[in-house]
Amino acid sequence: MLGQQMLAIVVAWDLYRITKSAIALGNVGLAQVLPVFLFTFVTGQVADRYDRRRTVVITQTAAAIVGLVLTFSGENRSVSLIYACLFLIATARAFQWPVTSSMLPQTVPMEDLTNAISWNGSAREFATMAGPAIGGIVIGIWGSEPVYFGQAVCSMISAYSFSRVQVPAHPPENRALPGWRGTLEGLQFVWNEKVVLYAMSLDLFAVLFGGARAVLPIYASDILNGGPQALGWLEAAPAVGAGLMSLALAHFGTISAAGRVMLWSVAGFGVATIVFAVSSNLILALAALFLVGAFDAISVVLRLSMVQLRTPTYLRGRVSAVNALFISSSNQWGAVESGIAASMLGTVPSVIFGGVMTLVVVGAIAAASKELRRWRN
Q1: pTM to 2 decimals?
Q2: Dihedral sign (CA 223, 203, 306, 253)
């Protein structure tokens, strides 16, 4: 995650420096969401049929190679090359997400799973916090190449670390069925488990409209009158909030009235997004993004706990692939939506619109799903 976030900030900065275009920033999401749509059901089959540890090592090695290509391309690092490399890394992540999600329940007792997800989330978010901050500082002092190289090194370390994890082999009787029947089992499970479907949909539409990350370079450069360092802090602020909230959730234990808390946390996400949209100074913007991350962390921990606890072991890879499709659709299509909306409405009105639509989504799903409102973890 540290390498991934370093890559995200250097790509955003380089693209905006070259093009000065909100559309170009939004297309970063398009380049990264396409592999998810192309390979989602294949990745679930891979996670449930093959050695999960080996799959992660392969994907992280591929990500390292792409980082080295971007490092040594120098001044030949064109917009098309950046998009192509983003597509390749997103393909690697598409295969990795169902695998790593399925590995967590194999390494901790089920009664500790929610707590483990909180700790895992806090580690991920602190890496997400450090990545943009480190990337922004390094870009400001030495330029882009060391950041691309740092991403490659992080991927190499990750590949080695996963190679040391001991994961039980799939029992033959629990492996996914071959062919389309086995491939679609995960999708069928999500469709039949309505509370899971509504929880995933809540995240999908809230982040699709409410995510403002794609336009952060515009805020840093043109609205808040900062530079790459300001962009780094803006990128890091949600991760600080999410990391601290994940630690709090891990410390204070299980949230019993989980459905209502999930709905209120996503509503808080929408309100904090609106506050960020109208911010005219860096301190207020950072505070609002901190709350965005904190509210999002509550929703993420509860949703992942629901998905893992309700899914049979032999289906976890394919259900995680469907979950990844929802998450990537919200994050990456949200970036595309942000770029288009900013170019049509203006940056600030587009972010306000996204926050308002998030509140509309929460109200609609709360009204539609009694099961989600009443879900207890």
Answers
A1: 0.69
A2: positive
